Amino acid sequence: EPEVTQTPSHQVTQMGQEVILRCVPISNHLYFYWYRQILGQKVEFLVSFYNNEISEKSEIFDDQFSVERPDGSNFTLKIRSTKLEDSAMYFCASTRTTDTQYFGPGTRLTVL
Amino acid sequence: SQQGEEDPQALSIQEGENATMNCSYKTSINNLQWYRQNSGRGLVHLILIRSNEREKHSGRLRVTLDTSKKSSSLLITASRAADTASYFCATRYSSASKIIFGSGTRLSIRP
Fold first, then answer.
1. Nearest CA to CA, how far is A48 from chain B (Å)?
2. Residue A42: which of B44, B98, B103 has the nearest Cβ?
3. Residue A11: how many CB atoms within 10 A of its CB?
C-alpha cells in the first residue's frame, strides 16, 4: 500500500540555522499539507499546497517558513532561521481529493 | 475556535472491555476523521465519516456522528493491549481542505 514518507526521521539543529524537511507524498495525490505537533500538545495545521501554490496557511506559518514542490515527487518545508519554539514533530500529509489525509511518520525537529 | 475537543482526556480500561471516546466540534463540517497515534509516532487514519452519514463500521471500530449535537463518538470493541494509543478526531470544514485536530484521548488498556 502506498505511503507518505518523510526524511529525516530526526533532525537536530542549532538555533538560527536553516532546516529543510522532506516529504514524498503518495504519487497520485494532489493536495499536500504540513502539520506540526509540539510535545504533549495537539496537532496544528501549518499550510496546504495545491496546484503548485499555497492554498491556505495558518498564523504559525510566518515568513520564516516556506514550502516547495521542486520536482514531481518531493514536497519540502523550509524553516529559514530556527527558534527554540520550532522544536516539534512535523508531519506531512497528502490526499487525492479533500477527504482522507494520509500522514507520514513525521520528522522530529530539535532546536538547541 | 473551530477545533474538536475529545473527552475523556484519558481512559484506562481492562483488556476485552469496550472503549468509547467522544468528540465535539463547533461549526458545520464536511467530514470528521479519527486517527490513532502511538507514543511519539505518526498518525494512522482509522475512519472517515461524512456529514450526511450517521454511523460507520470498520472491524472493531464503530463511529457515530450526530450533526445536530455537533458530536461524534468512536467505539472500540473487545479492546486489546495493542489499542493503547492516543486517539484524535479531526474535522474538515466546508470552506477548506485542511483538517483541525482535537486534543485527543489517551487510551490505556490494562492486561
1. 7
2. B103
3. 17
